[in-house]
Amino acid sequence: MNIITLLKSDHKEVTVLFKKLLKSKTAKIKESIFSKIYKALNMHTEFEEKTFYPALKKTAKTKDLVLESYVEHDLVKVLLSDIQNISAKDELWKAKVTVLQEIIKHHVKEEEQELFPQAKRILDKNQLDIMAKQYLSFKKE
Ligand SMILES: [Fe+2]
Ligand SMILES: [Fe+2]
C-alpha cells in the first residue's frame, strides 16, 4: 500500500460523488451527498497539508507546486463551508457546487499529473508506505 494510491482513490471517490450530486433531484438527497463530500475532502486535505505536502515542500522542484496546492485547498475550504451553510434550495447552491467541482478538477489534475509523479521520485518506497499507514489510522479516528 502506498499513499499515492490512497490519495488517488479519494480523488476518484469524490469525483463520483460530485457527478451524483449534480444529478440528484431533492434538496434532502443533495445535502446528504454533499455532507459525504465535505467529510471526505476535509480529511483528505488535512492529511495532505499536515503530512504529505510538508515532505515535498523541502525540495526546490516541488516547492512552488506545493505552495499553489495550499492556496487551492484554501479556496476549496471556503466553498465547502459556504455550501455547508446554505440550503440546497438556495439559488446560489448549484453555482457554488459547480465552481467547487471545477477547482477540484483542476487541483486533482495538477496533483496526479505533476505532483504525484515527482513525489514518487523524491520519496522512497518506505516513506510512501509509512504515510499510507498514517493516513489509514488518521481516517479511523
Ligand atoms: Fe489530493
Ligand atoms: Fe490536494
What does this structure look like?
- This protein is mainly alpha-helical and 141 residues long.
- The chain has one domain: Four Helix Bundle (Hemerythrin (Met), subunit A) (Up-down Bundle).
- 87% of the residues lie in helices and 0% in strands.
- The chain has 5 helices and no strands.
- Helix 2 packs antiparallel against helix 3 and helix 3 packs antiparallel against helix 4.
- The mean pLDDT is 97.
- One fe (ii) ion binds next to helix 1 and helix 2.
Features:
binds fe (ii) ion; mainly alpha; 141 residues; single chain; 5 helices
Largest sheet: none
CATH architecture: Up-down Bundle
| SSE run | HHHHH
CATH fourth-tier homologous superfamily: nmb1532 protein domain like
Helix content: over 70%
Structural class: mainly alpha
Number of domains: 1
The count of β-strands is 0
Principal-axes shape call? elongated
Q: What small molecules does the structure contain?
A: fe (ii) ion
